[in-house]
Amino acid sequence: TLINIRPVVAAIKEFFGTSQLSQFMDQNNPLSGLTHKRRLWALGPGGLSRERAGLE
């Protein structure tokens, strides 16, 4: 192949395995999904700190 995808796959696995934003989303509760998405948006890279955001 022209491109070795192993480094890309490793980076994705590392991000989802170690990121503070990586968590399982409860798909049975729509409000839980909205809360999860709000956390991703506010606390993501370059976002607010947990203390300044006022989230749980």
TrEMBL record:
InterPro entries in the record: RNA_pol_Rpb2_3
The protein's enzyme class: transferase
Record keywords: DNA-directed RNA polymerase, Nucleotidyltransferase, Transcription, Transferase
UniProt GO cellular component terms: DNA-directed RNA polymerase complex
Enzyme Commission designation: 2.7.7.6
Chain ranges of the RNA polymerase Rpb2 domain: 23-55
Xref: SUPFAM superfamilies: beta and beta-prime subunits of DNA dependent RNA-polymerase
Pfam families: RNA_pol_Rpb2_3
GO biological process, one term: DNA-templated transcription
GO molecular function, one term: DNA binding
Name of the protein in its database record: DNA-directed RNA polymerase
